Amino acid sequence: MSGYAELAVTSNFSFLRGGSHPEELAAQATELGLAAIGIADRNTVAGLVRAHSIAKEKEMQFLPGVRLVFADGTPDILAYPNCLSGWSNLTRLLTIGKRRTEKGECELYFADLLERAAGLSLIVVPPTKLSSPASIAVRDAREGDPFGESRAQSATNGFPSRRDAKRATTPGMTIKP
User: What CA–CA distance (Å, rounded) separates 109 from 81?
Assistant: First the structure.
């Protein structure tokens, strides 16, 4: 058995995102020799009981959680309850989000999580595309945004590029305007 545990597994309970049943994922993780598996579907705990039963049968550590997806632009956060009050807070948080919108949807805000974070272990999921303010401003300038160049310079502390910024901070190097 390896010391590796996959924590961000998505099952078919994350509609159009995961392809396998939670119990199949737990069984496959056992076959691969993983130390543990953490299933975290998008704003739901619906498939966790199925995965838990297989993991228990195979004597594998199971980490049930939820991938919290926010409506306010907050990056996704994996939430794993570590006690009974954590489970209570997590399910209450999901209920709040689901009551705000139509059936099958969940509308959560970061402020909701802050009110219900006790008893939860949280992992912030980085966005798939990392963009710094400088790279966004440079992209805008290339696409013809009239203020892109000035935003690019302010985002890089007044230097047109990282290379120029490095030269400016290197002793004996100067930048020609």
Answer: 19
More confident residue, 157 or 71: 71
Residues 6+ apart with CB under 8 A from 117: 89
Which CATH code for domain 5-124?
Answer: 3.20.20.140
pTM for this prediction: 0.66
Burial label, 140 (beta-carbon count in 10 A; 0-12, 13-18, 19+): middle
What is the reported pLDDT for 8?
75
Domain map of the chain by residue range? 5-124, 133-167
Question: What pLDDT is stored for residue 167 in this prediction?
Answer: 45
Ordered DSSP codes for 129-177: S---HHHHHHHHHHTT-TTHHHHHHHHTTT-SSHHHHHHHHSTT-----
Find the DSSP H helices in the chain.
Answer: 22-32, 48-57, 84-99, 110-115, 133-142, 148-155, 162-169
Which letter does DSSP use for residue 5 in this model? E
Q: What is the pLDDT of residues 50-94, one digit of tens each?
A: 777 777 777 777 888 999 999 998 999 999 999 999 999 999 999
